[in-house]
Design brief:
With 296 residues, this protein is α+β, with helices and mostly antiparallel strands. Helix content is 17%, strand content 32%.
Length: 296
């Protein structure tokens, strides 16, 4: 195993602390009785139209400036066509072609071992690909009824920032330190409470392995919806071992999306990994481009 190197990229989802949702005036606060923070817009009734939350754009710019990103003065929204059981429209409004922020970096000191008090082993710089705005989905509840899944749409439409890193991380400790740095920053900026236990901060982890010294990236797998830095560390450790085991036995790693089981620390397959064309992105026809001037 020491002959291999782990390559990690993160997609960190930050739920913004706005009073209302991304495209409606619905209450965006955490909690409340199920399906009470909803309206005709978040329920996708025919004839309803989205209206952009200006504060969410301001929060995105605030984070982009803090991370040294380029703030794109013209950004656009797109429809991501995918079956979301807990997003009534059946598609997600997101940014694909022209996100609000591009580039930037996250710099942090990583501890020698996760959770220890040992001195930092060095400074790590992780490049960012982009930061984009989108709406959150609702929450499916699978453990409250023996026959049916229940859906709470209070979270559907809550503003999200997705921070997409380049594959510059090399260990579970670095991934955890990256997430902790983001959590501290969004709290300091006042744009999110960063509470992972409430889903305000979570991440998808992209993992591949390759022989040390190799320059070509291996086949990656994506682990979805990790809402704990401890879970992220365990998921990375298991997935790294799983992929190395496949390669050592002469097999090949299949690109796929996987889930994480916190009870036994394992990952499991969810579906084959989709590419961008599988989502059939197209420009959101009901939202004009977002124009940011130097005076705002």
């Amino acid at each position: 195993m020491s002959a291999y190197e782990t390559v990690i990229g993160l997609e960190v989802h930050v739920q913004l602390a706005t009073r209302s949702k991304m495209f409606s005036t619905d209450n965006a606060a955490f909690g409340g009785a199920p399906n009470t923070h909803t309206s005709a817009i978040s329920l996708a009734h025919p004839g309803t139209l989205p209206r952009l939350n200006k504060t969410a754009v301001e929060y995105a710019v605030r984070l982009g400036l803090a991370l040294g990103c380029t703030i794109n003065q013209v950004s656009t929204f797109d429809r991501k066509n995918y079956f979301y059981a807990d997003l009534p429209k059946g598609y997600q409004i997101t940014q694909n072609e022209k996100p609000v922020c591009t580039g930037g970096q996250v710099v942090f000191n990583t501890p020698a071992t996760f959770g220890s008090e040992e001195p930092a082993s060095g400074q790590v710089t992780v490049r960012l690909h982009h930061i984009h705005l989108e709406e959150d989905a609702g929450k499916s509840l699978h453990d409250q009824d023996p026959e049916y899944s229940r859906i709470d749409l209070n979270r559907a439409g809550v503003p999200l920032l997705e921070i997409v890193s380049e594959p510059d991380l090399r260990s579970p400790e670095e991934a955890a330190a990256f997430m902790e740095t983001i959590r501290k920053l969004v709290r300091w900026l006042g744009i999110s409470d960063g509470n992972m236990e409430e889903g305000s901060l979570r991440c998808d982890v992209n993992i591949s392995v390759r022989k040390k010294g190799a320059t070509r990236l291996g086949t990656r797998c994506e682990i979805k919806n990790i809402n704990s830095m401890r879970f992220a560390r365990r998921a990375i450790e298991f997935e790294t071992d799983r992929q190395i085991g496949i390669l050592e036995q002469g097999g090949s790693v299949e690109q796929e999306t996987r889930g994480f089981n916190p009870e036994n620390g394992t990952t499991y397959p969810l579906r084959e990994k989709e590419e961008a064309h599988d989502y059939r992105y197209f420009p959101e026809p009901d939202l004009p481009p977002v124009v940011i001037t130097n005076n705002e």
